[in-house]
Write a structure and sequence with these properties.
The complex is a heterodimer of chains A (113) and B (114). By secondary structure, chain A is mainly beta. Helix content of chain A is 0%, strand content 53%. In chain B, 0% of the residues lie in helices and 56% in strands. The chains are: A mainly beta (113), B mainly beta (114).
């Protein structure tokens, strides 16, 4: 049973427009969420995170939104750039001393010049 | 060297071979992890070491044997693997402290079992 779900395997966006990547989770014990970006032949790179006490966290072009009641989070990238083309993974932790991360399957983002 | 390094980057081995994957972190972290990434599957956590002590073993077959001699080095010893063990093996590290949960990954070892 997948506890972290990324239902869109792929997404294509025009350069300069907004990219929205979605993630749903089923485990109500999760209280810390992270997004990772992965290029081919490289390991995942930490991008941005959010604690369950917040509903938004922003870092430059990247914003993560958390809707706890819907068990849903999203990553917004604006404006999208060709260098953003990668696989994006959503991950979650139960926190409170549990440092294990549960990952989704990833969404492949393609930003078209 | 900075960050998390893994060697080798690619490995082809037969089912009767014994090999080891190596991971080294230069971040001053105190926890290290092995993950397996198979095609079209989420990253699967295999082992967790916290201050050199193994704290998690997620039902991994005994043909995978981890070793953590110190907080900077992590090994995964492989023996009598099966073709379905072919995957990308990722090492990660983190700093266990307060509310920090970010893990930092190495580039991975692409393993092919023939």
């Amino acid at each position: 049973d997948q506890q972290v779900k990324q239902n869109s395997p792929s997404l294509s966006v025009q350069e300069g427009r907004i990219s929205i990547l979605n993630c749903d989770y089923t485990n109500s014990m999760f209280d810390y969420f992270l997004w990772y970006k992965k290029y081919p032949a490289e390991g995942p790179t930490f991008l941005i995170s959010i604690s369950s006490i917040k509903d938004k966290n922003e870092d430059g072009r990247f914003t993560v939104f958390l809707n706890k009641s819907a068990k849903h989070l999203s990553l917004h990238i604006v404006p999208s750039q060709p260098g953003d083309s990668a696989v994006y993974f959503c991950a979650a932790s139960e926190g409170a001393g549990s440092y294990q991360l549960t990952f989704g399957k990833g969404t492949k983002l393609s930003v078209i010049p | 060297e900075t960050g998390v390094t893994q060697t080798p980057r690619h490995l082809v081995m037969g089912m009767t071979n014994k090999k080891s994957l190596k991971c080294e972190q230069h971040l001053g972290h105190n926890a290290m992890y092995w993950y397996k990434q198979s095609a079209k599957k989420p990253l699967e956590l295999m082992f967790v070491y916290n201050f050199k002590e193994q704290t998690e073993n997620n039902s991994v077959p005994s043909r995978f044997s981890p070793e953590c001699p110190n907080s900077s080095h992590l090994f995964l010893h492989l023996h009598t693997l099966q073709p379905e063990d072919s995957a990308l093996y990722l090492c990660a590290s983190s700093l266990i402290s307060g509310d920090s949960y970010e893990q930092y990954f190495g580039p991975g070892t692409r393993l092919t079992v023939t």
